[in-house]
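Archive entry. Fields below.
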Amino acid sequence: MTPPDYEYLRKLLKDHSGLDLAADKQYLIESRLLPLARKSGLSGIPDLVAKIRAGSSTHTVQVVEAMTTNETFFFRDKVPFDHFRDTIMPEVLKARAARRSVRIWCAAGSTGQEPYSLAMCLKEMGAALAGWRVEIIATDLSQEVLEKSKAGIYSQFEVQRGLPIQMLVKYFKQSGELWQINPELRAMVQHRQLNLLHDFSQLGTFDVIFCRNVLIYFDQDTKINIFNRLARLMEADGFLVLGAAETVVGLTDTFKPLPERRGLYRPSGVRAALAMPRPAMAVGY
Amino acid sequence: MKTCLVVDDSGVVRKIARRILEGMEFTVIEAEDGAVALEACKRALPDAVLLDWNMPVMDGFEFLVQLRRMPGGDVPKVVFCTTENGIDHISRALHAGANEYIMKPFDKDIVIAKFQEVGLLALDTPAEA
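PREDICTED_STRUCTURE:
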């Protein structure tokens, strides 16, 4: 890949998805985009770049989708799901006892492992949630990824990474080498395509937001902007869950970390002045 | 150091498993069928057993049943690792006291994930270990 092509793709990704690739990530682009180029019947990345330079929005969307990572397993990192079960939900059960409803947002829902892991956690709580209205909204930038999430069908490899065997037996139906999550759990999750750089205030208010391993791809200003907008649609006593390598500390005071609960944050009550997200997105999605 | 007994009639599978488990800092003992594995357990109970299902002499299921009847035999964590990937086999194994179940083919990430699941491995063990 030529340096001008690399710079062009870097800028394109930055503008459209906020993905902030370092100067030395050529290999990452090559490993993701070469299969894409071949699939589109192109000879390689130079041809793909040429198509995009010529204004092909189809190829632009495909490149952005291919580059925004989707490495995910069920109960990824385990600890956030322990927090969900042992800290978050007991509080929610108390705080929402009158309303009997809970709204959860998976802001990087990807292929469904995270929202379905949360759905399984909630199912395991059994009678405690009887009569409650439970909503899990899974959003992702990529339509292709959301389709997979909706179908809830996983390979034998995917169901073996992080998913305890008892949960597999209990919540999945086997069909040959594939496993599909039960309709009852699929019905607990709603899917929407969404770019975190765009306005998301229409999603409503949430008690819990999982926003893990997505902000690491954004630059500092974009992170701050997203945190401040997340704070606006979170209940004052809600919970924000970030990935292991992410934090609000040093970026915004709209959230504060919970002591002894790594990755868990609550709104601080501080309302940050809200700059609008940068209007950089030209392509129609 | 924790010990893991690898029970599989395929020398190649035992070798692959050994490499993965030694990377996870386990001491590995090998057995080529359930009967040999049971003898090894009578000498010293391992912390973990990675167990194939179909083997000559004594299969993995029979080994598990016998192990769980031994004094202290409820302690080792037993993780099946087999091409038998049907829900009926999985249910039978769990019912007989298996702790986890790996469907072949497997890789290092799956072994790490399953060993973490049953508490044999710290949660922060990186997949690149």
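CURATOR_NOTE: Chain B touches chain A at residues 85-87, 90-91, 94, 100-103, 106-107, 109-110, 113-114, 116-117, 123 (CB under 8 Å).
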